[in-house]
């Protein structure tokens, strides 16, 4: 499969990563607010007082912030890699593998999109193959 205008494809992928990162920012912020409300609720107090078989389960409140922190880190990863690809930075192609692999877990559309992005990032145009003597 030959990709026409490879650099343009990488810029488009970079813009897609930027859009995904911008979409994740308000989601992660709202998740922080949800966690704050949840920790102050009676349900969290019931969970903290729950006895499981022979031992008491007392999860710390900080464990509830794991998901919003991971979402925020994910949005930062998408934004940085999208910036690098959109501006055709050398480090952009290497760093873009991380969000492309993360997209593989978003079945079915993310899997297809992530697979294509990994292929496009690792693709070497035929002109470069001929110039470098690679078959």
**Structural class of the helix and strand makeup?**
mainly alpha
Question: Can you count the helices?
Answer: 7
Radius of gyration: 21 Å
Name the helicity range: over 70%
Would you identify the regions where 5 or more consecutive residues have pLDDT less than 50? none
Which term fits the overall shape?
A: elongated
Tell me the major beta sheet.
Answer: 2 strands, antiparallel
Find the count of extended strands (DSSP E, 2+ residues): 2
> Approximately how much beta-strand content do the residues carry?
under 5%
Mean pLDDT: 79
Amino- and carboxy-terminal Cα gap: 15 Å
Question: SSE string, helix = H, strand = E?
Answer: HHEEHHHHH
Strand order of the largest sheet: 1-2
Short description:
The protein is mostly helical. Helices cover 71% and strands 3% of the residues.
Notes on the structure:
- The chain has 135 residues and is mainly α.
- Helix content is 71%, strand content 3%.
- It has helices spanning 6-39, 42-48, 66-86, 90-95, 97-103, 109-122, 126-132, and strands spanning 51-52, 55-56.
- It has a two-stranded antiparallel sheet.
- Strand 1 and strand 2 (55-56) form a beta hairpin.
- Helix 1 (6-39) runs antiparallel to helix 3.
- The longest helix is centred in the first third of the chain and has 34 residues, at 6-39.
- It is elongated and about 65 Å long.
């Amino acid at each position: 499969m030959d990709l026409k205008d490879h650099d343009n494809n990488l810029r488009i992928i970079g813009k897609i990563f930027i859009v995904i990162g911008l979409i994740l920012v308000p989601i992660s912020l709202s998740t922080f607010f949800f966690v704050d409300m949840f920790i102050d609720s009676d349900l969290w107090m019931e969970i903290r007082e729950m006895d499981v078989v022979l031992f008491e389960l007392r999860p710390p409140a900080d464990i509830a912030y794991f998901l919003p922190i991971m979402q925020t880190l994910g949005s930062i990863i998408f934004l940085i890699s999208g910036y690098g690809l959109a501006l055709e930075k050398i480090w952009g192609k290497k760093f873009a593998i991380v969000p492309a692999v993360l997209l593989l877990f978003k079945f079915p559309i993310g899997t297809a999109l992530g697979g294509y992005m990994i292929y496009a990032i690792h693709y070497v145009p035929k002109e470069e193959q001929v110039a470098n003597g690679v078959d």
